[in-house]
Amino acid sequence: MKHLRGEGLAPAFLPIESYVMRIYDPAFAASLTAARSSGIAPVWFAHFVAKDRETGELVAAGLWSGAEDITIDVEDPTGGTISRGYIGGCGLSVSGLQYVADLTDNPVTISMSQIAPAAQHLMRGVDLRLANCEIHATTRNGGALTSVPQLQWVGLVDAGPVQTPAAGGEGAISLTIRSEIMMQLQASNPAKSSDQHQRRRLSTDEFCKYAATIGSRAVQWYQG
């Protein structure tokens, strides 16, 4: 399964038949199917659950690619819909969405204006490290949204560089959203060969007793 990427705020989508085992709202599906002939105007929504830098409490923040602030029902990952508030005027765009059937790690990028007040608060008012992120999308037809925003991606914020421009240039904020499963599969544990860590499980476990002294030796277990 793939998601065809475009540029800026107007990426193109593949027809709905390209989304295997994914059931969309009929109106949204129809807009995707007609995209090749009539074009498409995508609308993006990003919702974050992060930690307040001062209190440590979890706080929610929603941004979307529109110009005004809105409250709207979106598709809930657990089923049904949920009402959320989203702040506009951030120049929000999403790229890199790819649906694959293997364990390929395909990060998704959320970009927004560096000078937008909501984006500034998101980067400095809360701690986005490993914050939960949900990305929804729908399309626009004649100024109206074609459907309830459909869930496209669920992941964790892995990086959030702020690009500070030179005088007269344009800055941007790019958040990298990765699958939580892929992050866990690729995470390294430096304590896994430690004798001290092994003994925490069982005080008499000496499996890693000499790990520090023979760490560079490649032992082939099948050779006795």
Characterization of the model:
The protein has helices spanning 26-33, 35-38, 117-124, 180-186, 195-201; strands spanning 42-52, 58-64, 70-75, 81-86, 93-95, 108-113, 126-141, 144-145, 150-159, 162-163, 172-178. The chain is α+β, with helices and mostly antiparallel strands. The longest helix is centred in the first third of the chain and has 8 residues, at 26-33. It is elongated and about 70 Å long. Mean pLDDT is 79; it is low at 1-21.
Keywords:
single chain, 224 residues, alpha+beta, 5 helices, disordered N terminus
Which runs of at least 5 residues are low in confidence (pLDDT < 50)?
A: 1-21
Helix content percent band: 10-25%
Mean pLDDT: 79
Q: Any idea what the radius of gyration is?
A: 22 Å
**Major β-sheet profile:** 9 strands, antiparallel
Distance, first to last CA: 47 Å
Sheet-strand content, in percent, reads 25-35%
